[in-house]
Amino acid sequence: MASHEFTSIRSPRIKGARRLAKRAFRQRERRFLAEGPQAVREALAVPGVVRELYATVEAMQRHDPLVRAAEQAGVPVHRVTLEVMGELAQTVTPQGLLAVCSFVDVPLTALENPRLVVVLSHVRDPGNAGTVLRTADAAGADAVVFTDASVDPYNGKCVRASAGSLFHLPVVVGARIDEVTRFLRGAGATILAADGRGEDRLDDLSDSGGLAGPVAWIFGNEAWGLPEETIALADRTVSVPIYGSAESLNLATAAAVCLYATAREQRRTPTLPV
Questions:
Q1: Tell me, what's the pLDDT at 198?
Q2: Of 19, 4, 26, 155, nearest to 102 (Cα)?
Q3: Which residue of 116, 159, 170, 268 has the lowest C-beta tally within 10 Å?
Q4: Which CATH number characterizes residue 94's domain?
Q5: Model confidence pTM above 0.90
Q6: Which positions carry the signal peptide feature in this UniProt record (predicted)?
Q7: 75 touches 98 (CB < 8 A)
């Protein structure tokens, strides 16, 4: 049963939720929007994350088990009209379910004994960032770090592109790249900067066992890569070899290749008990 029914986009409650589309309001409230049944399902799997759920009548009927799960978790479920959902949603064709969620990021110091970490530096495209987050999750990464020069992981497009992975693994937000590399190196990780002109080829590094230990990969902006000052913080710069005629790989594809190569090597080398 719905807690409230909202039929007007002028409702203060609806306006408040809609403001979460803007980064400044998200940061102030430490809340963000997760849209669609998959995102809502994954968010509900993390206790206490979903604060409110907005749903159209059709979506409530279509996703009845999901709505019931929200109610059983004590989440207020609000029924809204198609017009109101259209105002709240950030997609052209809304799926009728939208959750207001609490931030899920953790401090850098919460990463204990990481084996595989992804660091996004100067990554500005939310779709790319969300896709890398999803890939990191699939590859079994221990965490994804969004540096202070990167896109907000709570951007709606990033949340959607992550396909629920935002709720699966630790995410660090807003740390400086020098702090990140210093901390991860202190935790025993080798810092690898992905760069098209990198001195080490990924294949050679993998063959020599250079990916078997704890690794932190730094990925940069798709258009111009990593700044020189960031590359200088890495232990090695690594390029993905191009065997065909393609000029380069895009960010998400290069990240997938690097992360799966690392995951493969690490699984061949089991972690010894402390």
A1: 81
A2: 26
A3: 268
A4: 3.30.1330.30
A5: yes
A6: none
A7: no
